[in-house]
Structure formats: structure tokens, C-alpha cells
Amino acid sequence: MPRRMRRPPMDPIYKSPVNRDVKPAAPGEFAPVRIGPILADPPVVLAPMAGITNAPFRRLCRGFGAGLYVSEMITARALVEGNEKTLRLAEFDPDESPRSLQLYGVDPHYVGEAVRRLVDEDRIDHLDMNFGCPVRKVTRRGGGAAIPAKPRLLEAIVRSAVRAAGPVPVTIKFRMGIDDDWLTFLESGRIAEAEGCAAVALHARTAAQLYDGTADWNAIGELKQAVRSIPVFGNGDILEAWDALRMMRATGCDGVVVGRGCLGRPWLFRDLAAVFAGREPDDPPRFGPVMETMREHARLLCEWTGTRIGIRSFRKHATWYTKGFPGSTRMRDKLIRIESLEELESILAEGDPDLLFPARAMRMNRGKKGGRQRVLLPEGFRDDLEDTTPPESEEAGDGG
To answer: Of 254, 283, 312, which residue constitutes the final position of a domain?
Structure first.
């Protein structure tokens, strides 16, 4: 059998033009990041994403590379009140370690009670808190990304969580602010540092920006200069492993948070492990291995939630796995209607396992649509930004 020739590193399938000149990490260039007793090596975190980063998806990602894999978000009040669905979302695989969970809360009392329960029942090893959700139904009640605009309320919530967590490290994730004229990220970072958080993460977009345009990595660098005693993680536009190195070299941040870039591409964590270890990543998989990953993902979801819910949950993942492959539009039209693992298998049997991963798919948008918004806030929200009164509702949207 002839020896398979490796594609040259400058091939656009292997490395997109935006990263053409990026080199793997030099020995000792990037250190593992300590978050309390947890060592993130490489310094990579899976971003919490509602309806996505459940136990099956986290297991799949862990199989490709090390890092800190955070659960999808649960709400504090629902946990305190014993909501069955919330308790289910707070579950981990028996062998999952560390157990990292994201909590959303707007009331210091309920946040403290929820964290206390999680710690007392030995459910978590790490707690992340969401202050970045830009969804209108959340911000118009004063929650999500609106909370950092009231620094004393943010301070009270974070303080309650850290005190209740005891030895369990607490981190918080937030956006740059409401919009370009109302930035809050530097004060949010200083509050987290002062209240005893173990690290902070910045999604370098505003709530108004949603997922539009490019992330402002300069803001991550500013936050790193303002917050000196705890690690700073950067989030936004990590679509290839090389992006992580570019971000860290440009901003001085300590690690990266990966969100939409791994949708339909959990092997991104394998590539991240490689570049942080000073190696060139393997070539992207052909469609054959992609289909095998799809089968495994669907099976895990069905085992976790039952076939009906699991296969319907997999539909959105199927569109991300196939995105960009030649002829995939017709296949996706079928995949978004599947009702069973047998249907999935029948459709995948039509695929060509030798198809190369398409260059144009490397940086294709996955997940959220583009576009900006005018952020809705409660009436009179700006009247007293020092107010510590919790918003009326704890409804939460996507992790942002």
C-alpha cells in the first residue's frame, strides 16, 4: 500500500489563511492554569451552552482532549425548589472529573442556598456563574448581561456564591457590557477578584452585539491588565486551535473558553491539546470519521434522555457535523426530521466516507445567527445603578 502523503501545512484545509503564520506553542510558553485545586492543562475551557453541553456532549469532548468541561446552565431558584429537570441537568457521568457546573441566579439569597446545596451534597468540584446572557426576555427583567451594570448587585451575588462554596472554586463569565457606550467588564473583573473568585472569563462582545461581527480581543488584554491576582480567560472566535494561540499571544490572557467553534467539531479539543504541546494538529477528519462521531453522539444522547428526546436533541448537532460538506444540504433536510437511531443510520449510509473536510467549513458560523440588537432593560433601570434589589424573575436564556 503506498504511503499516505500528508497535506502540507499551508494547505487551506489544514490551516485557514487567518492563521497561516501561527506556530505551535514553544516549550514553556503557556503554563497550565490553576483554578483553586483544579489544574486546567491545557488552559482550555468548554463554554457552557444551554441545550448543548450536557453530560453526553461533555463525554464526547473529553474523549478528544483534556480541559475543563462546564455543564449547561441551571438556575439557582429552580435548584433550591427541587425542580426535577434542573436536578437532572446538574448530573454528571460517574467518572467525570472535575465536575464543573454553571449556575445562573439574580438573588443573592437563592444563589447562596443553591451553592450550599451543591457543595453539601458533593455534586460539584467547580462552580461557574453566568452574567453574560444577552437574551431580551432576560435583560428586560434586569437579569443576565444586565446584572454587571448594577455593580453592587453583582457584588452581592458573587459574595454569596463564594462564601457558600467554601473550598469549591467559583469563577464568573461576563460580556464587555450592555453596548459600546456602556462597558462594565473592567469593574466586573475587579469585583470578582475582590470577592474571592478563582478566575474570570470574558466573552469579548457586548450584549447588543450578540454573536455578530468579530470579538474585541483588545478588551481581553485590558481585563488582564486590570485583574492581576487571578487567571483571565478569553472567549470569542476560537474557531481553530490556532486562534487560541493568537488570542493568548495578543492579549496575555491565561487561557481560552471555546464555545461555538466546537459545535459539530468536538475534535477541536484534540487540536488544541496538540498546539499547546508544541505540535501541528492532525488533519481534519474525513466524512467517515465524522459520521462515526455522529453515531456515538446520538447514541449517548439517547441513552441519557431516552430515544425520543435524545434523537430530537441530536438534530441540531447533525446540521453542524455536516455543514460545508459537498451535497450535505439534502442530507441535512433528512437529518432534521429523524425520529430514531435507525433512521440516522440509514441516512448516514448514503454518505461518502472519503469526503475531505471542506476548507470553507473551517470558519463557518455555527449555532447563533448574526445581527445586533437594542438591549431591552427594565423601566427605570438606569435611575439607581447602585441598587442591590434582585430582579423579579430568574428566567434565563442561553449561556451567552
So the answer is: 283
